[in-house]
Amino acid sequence: AKWCVCSVCGTHSPRLHACLHCVHFACYQGHIQDHSASMQHNLVVDVEQGQVLCVACGDYVYDTDVGRIAQACREKSRRSLGLDTEYRAWEPDQVEMTLLQANPKRRRPTANSTIGLRGLINLGNTCFMSCIIQALTHTPLLRDYFLSDKHVCQFNNDSTRCLVCEISRLFQEFYSGNKAPLILHKLLHLIWTHARHLAGYEQQDAHEFFIAALDVLHRHCQGNPPSNGDSTHTCSCIIDQIFTGGLQSDVVCQACNGVSTTIDPFWDISLDLGPCPYGTSKADKTVPTSLADCLDRFTRPEHLGSSAKIKCSGCQSYQESTKQLTMKKLPIVCSFHLKRFEHSNRLHKKISTFISFPEHLDMTPFMSNRRNNNNNHNGVTTHPTDINNRYSLFAVVNHVGSLDAGHYTAYVRQHRDQWYKCDDHMITRATIQDVLQSEGYLLFYHKQILEYD
Amino acid sequence: MSDRSTQLKNSINQKLVETGEKERLKDMLRQRLTECGWRDELKEHAKEIVRERGLQQITVDDLVKEITPQGRQLVPEAVKRELLAEIKKFLSSQTQ
């Protein structure tokens, strides 16, 4: 940096070039051209980018080997400064180039395009499945994966056995431009075969379907048959890459203050809505009215009563303890399940209270490092919001009606942030206000910033 | 161009490069310009120019001359302000 100045005028100009024939640095605005003319040194290189200029031709010249060397040097310099890899736009390889040339027709969605939207015929209480399929087909990363044909089938592309193949086919249908509604009989059959607990003609729970679908997709994605103790930590299938997060559970022994930490994978966060049944503090008595309230309660330290003593490995005795859940690793898609149907307690009623949720969500206050750094729970510390923890809403599943007679609909965010309501085969335009004022049962958020590993 | 101001410019630049701040600021700028669609718009414009003139007839300099005015004009104020703020922050941290 100290020596990278023009040999003629001594300034560090923006397009400094280095002579490839001798040791000489000069500005692009005349000085390097003078040098080339006087010394007959025609080839010079841009020190920032690594592009080679032929002064005689008056333009840059390109060579694949030189390009590779330039890129390697840039990578090296970035790494030495502690920066991430440079973002490189996608370039087609030989096979892709041939395919592109053989298929010259290009589809370009206009601003009003309805690409990606298709209705789903209700086959008799199948709206629980339709709304989840709508949410999945509008999950940006998942859509990109399937539209770029990345699935390698372990069942020899037998779509009667492989759920991933069927989902892949559905994505192709959704984005084909065809507007006619689809009939998901094949998908339904596959789900009934692989998730027996969902078979039958009654209305099922959309959340249960969501988890079952992810589970079957995850199993069918894996190359090898899953071993016992299906370790989702080491799986790198697309489902895990997108949906799996890590939930940290810290149990603090009240006697010796020893902390026992475990991290478990999760695909979604189920949030309680009623008043806290066993809480003692004032905060526990209030009912949540927003997603933030729910997440606050979810990550609040909870005193496990005297009837739930844990064996502490530190002091080797049964002691009372507090337990706290925090987010260790955030998934790319954060799915929230508002527990409106309590099947466990005596009240078989639906909790219909309005829970407000934002269009953009910051998960920073619920992260594990917040807990690890300050052990005082009462301090309202202001944390610098990490932009990596920011999420945007892209789908909402709503349940209308009561526990016995209900109907599911979904709002999805399509091309150019336009929202649509999906009610079985009817797709209608909606506004973000419609979405934010809806009751909300399942909320799907997508990370705003993606990092390359 | 006075020697003193050149010296100052060079030493500031040296500090920016050596700490990696220059690269980091460039990354941030690239990201902001991509996010607001600046990059895509300019890319389209450049492609049009190449299509008009023909790939063999055009030089990098020609392209730079054509798209620079539009490029300069399209940078959002917010991005300029953010970059300026970051530079100021860095400079004040250096004179400690």
TrEMBL record, chain A:
Any one GO MF annotation of this record:
zinc ion binding
Q: Which residues are in the UBP-type domain?
A: 1-80
List, alphabetically, the Gene3D superfamilies matched: Cysteine proteinases, Zinc/RING finger domain, C3HC4 (zinc finger)
User: Taxonomic classification, please?
Assistant: Eukaryota, Metazoa, Ecdysozoa, Arthropoda, Crustacea
Q: Which domain of life is it from?
A: Eukaryota
UniProt xrefs under CDD domains:
Peptidase_C19D
According to its UniProt entry, one GO biological process term is: protein deubiquitination
Which PROSITE patterns has this protein been placed in? USP_1, USP_2, USP_3, ZF_UBP
Q: Name one GO cellular component term.
A: SAGA-type complex
Entry annotated with the keyword Oxidoreductase: no
Q: Start and end of every USP domain?
A: 118-448
The record's similarity note reads: Belongs to the peptidase C19 family. UBP8 subfamily.
Q: Per the record, what are the reactions this protein catalyses?
A: Thiol-dependent hydrolysis of ester, thioester, amide, peptide and isopeptide bonds formed by the C-terminal Gly of ubiquitin (a 76-residue protein attached to proteins as an intracellular targeting signal)
Q: What is this protein called?
A: Ubiquitin carboxyl-terminal hydrolase
Q: What is its EC number?
A: 3.4.19.12
Q: Where in the cell is it found?
A: Nucleus
Q: What class of enzyme is it?
A: hydrolase
Automatic annotation (TrEMBL), chain B:
Which residue ranges traverse the bilayer?
none
- Recite the UniProt keywords alphabetically: Activator, Chromatin regulator, mRNA transport, Nucleus, Protein transport, Transcription, Transcription regulation, Translocation, Transport
Subcellular localization is given as:
Nucleus, Nucleoplasm
What superkingdom does the record give?
Eukaryota
Record's keyword annotation contains Transport:
yes
**UniProt KW Transcription regulation keyword:** yes
Cited Pfam families: EnY2
The GO terms describing molecular function are: transcription coactivator activity
Q: Which InterPro entries match?
A: TF_ENY2
One GO-annotated biological process of the protein: chromatin organization
A cellular-component GO term for this protein: SAGA complex
Protein family per UniProt: Belongs to the ENY2 family.
Function according to Swiss-Prot or TrEMBL: Involved in mRNA export coupled transcription activation by association with both the TREX-2 and the SAGA complexes. The transcription regulatory histone acetylation (HAT) complex SAGA is a multiprotein complex that activates transcription by remodeling chromatin and mediating histone acetylation and deubiquitination. Within the SAGA complex, participates to a subcomplex that specifically deubiquitinates histones. The SAGA complex is recruited to specific gene promoters by activators, where it is required for transcription.
Subunit: Component of the nuclear pore complex (NPC)-associated TREX-2 complex (transcription and export complex 2). Component of the SAGA transcription coactivator-HAT complex. Within the SAGA complex, participates to a subcomplex of SAGA called the DUB module (deubiquitination module).
Please give the name of this protein: Transcription and mRNA export factor ENY2
